[in-house]
């Protein structure tokens, strides 16, 4: 007996599940951590041109990841994919920065943590793809019925 979902089940399904919120939080945390890495290095050290260029690339990636994390926490359409892509790029960039900075003798706890948090964000974003899609579909069904939940 496969019945179409009722409005009540759609309202329940329109709430972001915990895995989606956790994925969004991880993506947001990864972006914020990379922004802290950039802030720490820009304000605390005299950097070479290469280091400055790398940080100027990493900074917008961190900002984009933080925004994608906020969107994912609210289960917006396409946010799980955006979080996955942003976290993947952030993982590559933060790992590159970590290797570059350690090769130059610069040790930073933020830089050490950033690739790990970005990797966690990748995993949680990937796990969030299905649940986030179900939330978006439930919201679309509610909107078609005339319900605007403000989500």
CA-CA gap between termini:
30 Å
Uncertain stretches: none
Number of strands: 0
Apparent shape: elongated
Our Rg estimate from Cα atoms comes to 19 Å
What is the average per-residue confidence, as pLDDT, rounded to a whole number?
90
Helix tally equals 5
Count of discrete structural domains: 1
Q: Characterize the main sheet.
A: none
Furnish the topology, listing elements before pairings.
Layout: H1 7-13, H2 18-44, H3 49-73, H4 79-103, H5 109-144
Helix pairs in contact: 1-5, 2-3, 2-4, 2-5, 3-4, 4-5
Defining traits:
single chain; 151 residues; mainly alpha; 5 helices; 79% helix; 0% strand
Written overview of the protein:
The protein contains five helices and no strands. The chain has 151 residues and is an all-alpha fold. The protein has one domain (18-144). Helix 1 (7-13) runs antiparallel to helix 5 (109-144) and helix 2 (18-44) runs parallel beside helix 4 (79-103). The longest helix is centred in the C-terminal third of the chain and has 36 residues, at 109-144. The two termini are 30 Å apart. The mean pLDDT is 90.
